Amino acid sequence: MPTLEEIFLSMPQYAVTERLKNVNKTIQFIVTGDEPGEYVLRIENGNVTVEKGKAEQADLTITTPSDVWKGIVTGEINGAMAFMTGKFKASGDLNVLMQMQNWFKTPS
Q1: Residue ranges of domains in the chain
Q2: Tens-digit pLDDT profile for residues 42-70
Q3: What is the pLDDT of residues 22-35, one digit of tens each?
Q4: What is the 3-state secondary structure (H, E, C) of the chain?
Q5: Phi, psi at residue 90, to the nearest 5°?
Q6: Residue 45: CA count within 13 A, CB half-sphere
Q7: CATH code of domain 4-92
Q8: How many angstroms separate the CA atoms of 15 and 84, rounded?
Q9: Which of 50, 61, 86, 89 sits a CA distance of 20 to 30 A from 41?
Q10: What does the pLDDT look like over 76-108, one tens digit per residue?
């Protein structure tokens, strides 16, 4: 199983670029738990980048335990249910959170 850092840094290769052509968003992840860290996901007209650290300004901030986000990325945990049951928190533009599930395919 890859580390959470490896999962975040590999996100661009799982982006569905045709769905991101007119998307310009910055998403801040604050990860707690066994693999804590901060990551910034930037989407600019179909171009997806991920870097460690903090964004000056984010459209959406997701605060999540590392094991929960790993489960969401691998498809073991339903992201919408995890959010609704309080397993992770999000603030900012929640429409971005809803759209994210369509922007990335699950790693196989």
Answers
A1: 4-92
A2: 999 889 999 999 999 999 999 999 999 99
A3: 999 999 999 999 99
A4: CCCHHHHHHHHHHHECHHHCCCCEEEEEEEEECCCCEEEEEEEECCEEEEEECCCCCCCEEEEEEHHHHHHHHHCCCCHHHHHHCCCCEEEECHHHHHHHHHHECCCC
A5: -140, 145
A6: 0
A7: 3.30.1050.10
A8: 24
A9: 86
A10: 999 999 999 999 999 999 999 999 989 988 776
Q: Structure pTM?
A: 0.94
Structure-token pair, residue 54? 């903090």
Residue 6's Cβ-count burial label (10 Å; 0-12, 13-18, 19+) is exposed
Q: Scanning the structure block, which residue is given the tokens 């809803």? A: 98
Residue 17's identity, in one-letter code, is T
